[in-house]
Amino acid sequence: AEFGGNEHHQNEVINYMRFARSKRLLRLKTVDSCFEELKDSLVEETFTADEVRDMLDGLHAVVRGEVEMELINTAHTNVLLLRQLFFQAEKYYLRLQTDISELENELLEQVAEFEKTDFKVSDKMNQDASKPKLAPLNEAGVSELLNKEIAKLQEENENLKAKLRTLESQLEDTVAALKEDYERSLTVSAASQKDLQENLVSAKHELLRVQEQLAMAEKELDKKFQQTAAYRNMKEILAKKNEQIKEIRKRLQ
């Protein structure tokens, strides 16, 4: 297998990487919105150095909170993933072993390349034969159970791949429509270009929605961006800051 395991395990890795990527995109969208919200709040033509510093401090606090939350969620998600694997291994009397040293070596670069090339890497990613292998503590009856489980997982995997192909086809159609709208916007007059750009933004939002549906179909993601606490906190900070600026200017006058 290209990733160093059988087809089923490779597909499991791909599914997890897609899940992690979708979570990462949602968090980045939240960070982007924080900056856009700050830009939209800049209604005055000039600001003092203290005013700019206060606004940047508020933005820094929100963005730092988002990054910290993402790192915490990633760590906790990995713990839950390991928990699933350990429970499955114990069901078949297996003991899994982990090597923390492999989490910070050149394999990370290969994983990144694997993601950039649609999860395709060279045979260099194959596991070292010297690594300890999983061994059953009691082999009596385990082979038959494993064969049944493998057949079941293979069937589920085929169903999942068919569903993913359907969703990816819909995604490709959305991207093609988005590209067509963008190219058309380059040829229209300046007066109508603004409307076409708004349609482009709407199409991009639809693309993000389809991507989110893909991730939810795999891992049942249900978190919505507009409901994040960071978004509401940022609006409150900016609203208070604008009121303070108006009050100071009024007192100066």
Automatic annotation (TrEMBL):
Principal cellular location given in the protein's record: cytoplasm
Localisation per UniProt entry: Cytoplasm
Coiled-coil features, chain-numbered ranges: 143-251
Family membership: Belongs to the LZTFL1 family.
Family annotation (PANTHER family): LEUCINE ZIPPER TRANSCRIPTION FACTOR LIKE (PTHR21635), LEUCINE ZIPPER TRANSCRIPTION FACTOR-LIKE PROTEIN 1 (PTHR21635:SF0)
Subunit record text: Self-associates. Interacts with BBS9; the interaction mediates the association of LZTL1 with the BBsome complex and regulates BBSome ciliary trafficking.
The protein's name in its UniProt record: Leucine zipper transcription factor-like protein 1
